[in-house]
Task: structure prediction
Amino acid sequence: MNESLNSFNIAVVEDDAILREELAHFLRNNSHVVTELVTGLGLEELLTKQRVDVVILDLNLPGVSGFDIAIRLKKHHPEIGILMLTARTSLPDRVKSYNSGADLYLPKPTAPLEILAAVNSLGRRLAKPVPMEIWRLSTAHHALFSPDSSQKVLLSPIEEALLICLCQANDFTQDADTLCQVLSRKTYSPPVTRRALENIISRLRKKLADCMGDDTGQFIRSVRGIGYQLCLRLSIRTDNPVRS
Result:
């Protein structure tokens, strides 16, 4: 099992089904969240829905090549790490990969343990520090206030309940089923499902990102096999609310 405490969201873009499935299975067994993709188009669609930390990318793909995908990633998503994993091992291909934006380049075949070590190292190196200032949640204003009160994020009742539940949980981590139960009590009908929970968290991440100028989605982290973790230092204020 993965000795790293970090769990990264990984996209494996590979048209060899056997290799893709085996690599994805190995990475999942080592605590990472993995999405399997065949084309660059599939990767672009994924990036509109969720955060990706590392992309493992082949060069020879249907449609757009791995070189062009890497160029687009570095232009529009510079926070994402790119690991080229390819049978094309000539010096010109290696140089072109790095010039296109690759952070690491591994030849096929490479032992899964080495790929895992490379992913862990790349993910840790590129991870952005989580803001450590203490934000304040005012239940009177139904809003989050920045440490200096200069920024305000309005919250729906269900978003407020979500943040309170995460803030009060051990290690700021709560399982998905408990979150669904808590949020269901804030709605009349229907009950909050896991899919609905994902949508609520996605919208809240966007609100926070728009306010803080950060689109990496680091504020609420998915914890594989458990649920979600609040990565924003937060205090809850029920009286004497901050004046906006």
In short: The longest strand covers residues 81-86. Residues 1-5 have pLDDT under 50 and may be disordered.
